[in-house]
Specification:
single chain, alpha+beta, 3-stranded antiparallel β-sheet, two-stranded antiparallel sheet, 10 helices
């Protein structure tokens, strides 16, 4: 017997030959994905409701406390409704979240505080996404492709870190959220071996930079940073002329920090016809 999840996963895979109209639905396709997810989730909840004996819910402490309270005080807990137990294997359930939280706290207790906090957001211009889109589509039309590509990028990132990019890694914790533009975003905590932990500002500067790369020595990195990691003025063509833009000074002044030294002078780039020194 094939489960709903496996069947819908089969339907969402692109195959050779003519494609079904489903993938050209745009927002209707997104609604379809939401509906099938709700259907699969309801099936799992129905299974938990009808298999409480399998989960041995009568052994949970809260039910025992309710029964003791009922006997001692003479009160009837029946009108309160039937209590259903969702196991920790049900994604999103309270026990699932508590288990992940306790695991994360156990890692922090054993390895102490994290050494690095890293974020990565899906780029709708990734060539793997562009190549997989049908003519006339954008990344927002195919959240399935964006999620699949991001998952592979995430695995490649974790493999790079585990192979010693920042040094010997003893543990890492991550969570994934989806931004307003429907792009997945990862928050990653990295725990390094004591021999590779950050010791001084020179070690920090070797891994973190608050300055634009040198366009002569690192032209590719400079192009990517200026394209994907800088913001221009907010609503430049609208609020600037109304006199109420709160970001008019953004990028027009240089804020010096301890990372800027005599040998590390700021570099200049432009965004939306505004020159910025970083």
């Amino acid at each position: 017997m094939v489960s709903d999840t496996c069947y819908y996963a089969y339907c969402l895979h692109v195959r050779d030959g003519p494609q079904p109209p489903l993938f050209y639905g745009g927002k209707l396709f997104q609604q379809f994905v939401v509906d099938i997810w709700a259907n699969c989730e309801q099936r799992k909840l129905n299974w938990a409701r009808t298999h409480q004996h399998t989960l041995r819910s009568e052994l949970y402490q809260e039910l025992q406390d309710a029964a003791v309270h009922d006997r001692h005080d003479g009160e009837d807990v029946g009108p309160l409704g039937r209590k259903l137990i969702l196991s920790s294997s049900h994604v999103g359930s309270p026990r699932f979240m508590i288990q992940l939280f306790q695991d994360a706290m156990a890692i922090c207790r054993h390895f102490h505080k994290q050494d690095l906090f890293l974020t990565m957001t899906a780029n709708p211009k990734w060539p793997e996404i562009i190549y997989s889109l049908f003519p006339g589509q954008t990344a927002t039309d195919r959240p399935d492709i964006v999620s699949w590509v991001f998952e592979q990028k995430k695995k490649a990132l974790l493999k790079l870190i585990d192979n010693g990019f920042f040094g010997t890694t003893v543990a890492h914790i991550h969570t994934i959220e989806f931004q307003k533009r429907s792009l997945p975003h990862i928050h990653l905590l990295i725990f390094l071996h004591p021999q590779h932990r950050i010791q001084d500002s020179y070690h920090i500067n070797s891994m973190i930079s608050a300055q634009l790369p040198d366009p002569q020595l690192q032209p590719l990195l400079y192009a990517k940073v200026t394209k994907y990691m800088l913001h221009g003025l907010c609503c430049l063509l609208n609020c600037q002329y109304l006199g109420n833009c709160h970001d008019l000074s953004f990028g027009s002044r240089l804020i010096r920090s301890p990372l800027h030294t005599a040998q590390n002078e700021p570099r200049t780039t432009s965004r939306q016809s505004v020159s910025m020194e970083i």
